[in-house]
Design goal:
Elements: E1 2-6, H1 9-26, E2 31-34, H2 41-49, E3 61-64, E4 66-68, H3 79-86, E5 98-99, H4 108-121, E6 127-130, E7 152-155, H5 158-164, E8 178-181, H6 184-188, E9 192-197, H7 203-211, E10 229-234, H8 244-252
Parallel strand pairs: 1-10, 2-3, 2-6, 3-5, 6-9, 9-10
Antiparallel strand pairs: 4-8, 7-8
The structure holds 2-amino-2-deoxy-6-O-phosphono-alpha-D-glucopyranose.
Length: 266
Amino acid sequence: MEVIILPTSDAVATLAADLVEAQVHAKPHAVLGVATGSSPVAVYDQLGRRLDTGLSFARTQIFTLDEYVGLNPEHPERYLNVIQRDLVAKIDVDPDAVHGPDGLAVDLRQACADYEGRITGAGGIDLQILGIGTDGHVAFNEPGSSLGSRTRVKTLTQQTRHDNARYFGGDVGAVPLHCLTQGMATIMDARSIVLIGSGATKATAVEQLVEGPISARWPATLLQLHPAVTVVIDAPAASRLQLTSYYQHTYDNKPNWQQPLARVDS
Ligand code: GLP
């Protein structure tokens, strides 16, 4: 796990966008996993601006992490609509290449299995962008999630519903109780992962993610077992870490050859 601590959330967004851009340059037909939530919005803004400098997503495929159950197709907080607004509208990806689990399916279990099949059928995710919830969830894998889970239905914690109520006019009751989410094992299948986090509200979750024991209590801790995770955080989000000077020293002395992404000929 590489831990990169930067002074501001803007710097976090720039570096995360650099990593996505490197992935797409290395493999123009990359399969990208994308998170919703506030953390990646600045990353997506930057990626959109980079189309002017030759970056293209025309051959990429995009998979979202999760979806609320039961929000109607026009609901602005349906995650497929969120990712359309926050990312797809800003880049040149083919709209038919944007996928999410179907939170309106009559058979939700089947929808979860279908989503796993769509990811596998696309060749698996090359780079997964993740945020982190204040309770240590990634995607919607809440505390107690099986660390071997695949895409499935989950019940949101009250903490997550409170955190996300800001998107529903402050009304916790309007935040759905249930969601479909890629499982921890699904996320671990991604070839590389970039997790971003900003602000002091994430400090405890980041502390657990990076330095805590691996436990379903803090599902993000499973990422410690992934061979290619880059955690990009700002100083407030890093404020509870113990080994910050070592992470900084490592980043400052990163050898040129240690690039995370090898070029893949298209
Ligand atoms: C949401 C999403 C996650 C996201 C997390 C943090 O509920 N399901 O994918 O990473 O919570 O969101 P934010 O970036 O807004 O803090």
